[in-house]
Design a protein that fits this description.
This protein has one domain (2-203). The chain contains 8 helices and no strands. The chain has helices at 2-21, 25-29, 36-63, 66-98, 106-127, 134-159, 167-170, 174-203. Helix 3 (36-63) crosses helix 8 and helix 4 (66-98) runs antiparallel to helix 8 (174-203). The chain is globular and about 55 Å long.
């Protein structure tokens, strides 16, 4: 716990420093390009959190341990939080790059669908409160929700034309690529820290 917290305290400031100091992406794409180092890691950690929620749900159904169900629920909470932040940062990027906060680009549309899927999970979880089968039903839902991730993230945006720039065009130079990697690691550690804290708070109840 303490070791993870120390890693977060180091990695996050370093990633922010590199994002604003060394990455030459701003020279090629303007200062707007720096949003890459926040928007992409936020989206990545959201997907990671949803994957953890799905696989933890699968383990709960297979093994019946309550700890897997709580991990799935907390991870879904964090994933939804990061999804909201990714959507907000993406909207700012959209306004600065394309002139409006929302364009119903395929990636923007897919993230809205994703948010609705996981908002429905929390509605289901709340509606089934007091029901003995709630944990298994909501776990099954998270497993099904997880199977939608590849389609919404990888397939759907490629079916239709997207305004989103290709990632390779933004990370062609080594410093930008390394900065993005550091940011991805930092936000991943931040997710793990949030999950650890959420479990710790739950254990005190």
């Amino acid at each position: 716990m303490k070791f993870l917290a120390r890693l977060v305290h180091i990695a996050v400031p370093v990633s922010i420093f590199l994002s604003f100091r060394y990455a030459p992406v701003a020279e090629a794409h303007g200062e707007t390009g720096r949003l890459l180092f926040f928007h992409v890691p936020l989206a990545w950690t959201a997907m990671l959190a949803f994957l953890v929620a799905g696989f933890s749900s699968l383990l709960f159904i297979m093994k019946g341990r309550d700890s897997f169900e709580t991990t799935a629920r907390f991870s879904a909470e964090i994933g939804l939080f990061f999804t909201l932040l990714a959507t907000a940062s993406g909207s700012i990027w959209s306004k600065l790059s394309w002139g409006s906060y929302w364009n119903w680009d395929p990636r923007q549309t897919s993230i809205i669908i994703l948010m609705l899927i996981y908002l429905a999970y929390f509605s289901l979880n709340s509606a089934l409160r007091g029901n003995d089968g709630r944990a298994r039903i909501t776990s099954a839902y998270l497993i099904i929700a997880m199977t939608s991730l590849p389609f919404l993230i990888a397939v759907f945006p490629r079916i239709f034309g997207s305004l989103h720039p290709h990632s390779g065009s933004l990370t062609a130079d080594v410093p930008t690529r390394l900065t993005l990697i550091v940011s991805l690691v930092a936000f991943t550690l931040l997710y793990l820290q949030f999950l650890s804290l959420r479990k710790r708070i739950h254990s005190y109840k």
